[in-house]
Amino acid sequence: MKNLESLIKTYNDFPQKGIAFKDILGIMHDPEVFRELILKMSSNKVIKSSEAIISIEARGFIFGSAISLQTSKPMVVARKPGKLPGKLIKENYNLEYGKSTLSIQKESLEKFNSYVIIDDLLATGGTIECVANLIRKSGKKVNGSVTVVELAELHGRCRFDFPIESILSI
Ligand code: AMP
Description:
By secondary structure, the protein is α/β, with parallel strands linked by helices. 27% of the residues lie in helices and 34% in strands. It starts with 8 loop residues before the first strand and ends with a strand. Its main location: cytoplasm.
């Protein structure tokens, strides 16, 4: 997609030494590219076949919200600790540069039967795997995942038995 890669800046050794951090926030500085990106993500058949979107805090919310509006699919969120009220389902996970926990409100997961997971970037796949486990533990189906960027050399996609779609593989 024209211009997309030029809007993603790399910061070496952030947030820790050895990590080449891909800052996708520049995409929002160019609404035409952002719109084109959202239309492209929204046209993905994994999204079309899912009852709902699940987006991951925080950068996943930017793309998940826009795709939800574009496709009229409901959106559920997976959040970091201490952010969500009510009964939660939680799981710990490892990502490229650390460990964390994600939670989803039980009630929100109960509402829909099949999900597509939306995030900004796939690195090792630990984050998406965590959300997939939470969805499956609740007896619901994961149809696939759609991200803006995939760091191909980390082979995150090999962890999954569902379709992994990315707009830009770098
Ligand atoms: P992983 O679980 O290793 O696939 O990491 C994916 C999650 O961590 C996404 O939510 C990304 O926002 C973030 N992330 C991991 N590695 C990077 C990176 N090199 N640049 C930007 N974000 C990253």
